[in-house]
Amino acid sequence: MTGHGGFAAGMAANVKMLAGSDAELKAVDFADGMNVEVFEKQLAEAIDSYADCEAVLVLADIAGGTPYNRAAGLSMTRPKVCVMDLCMRNITGDECPDVDALAADIMQTGHENIGKFVLEVPAQPQEDEDGI
Question: Model-level pTM?
Answer without folding.
Answer: 0.72
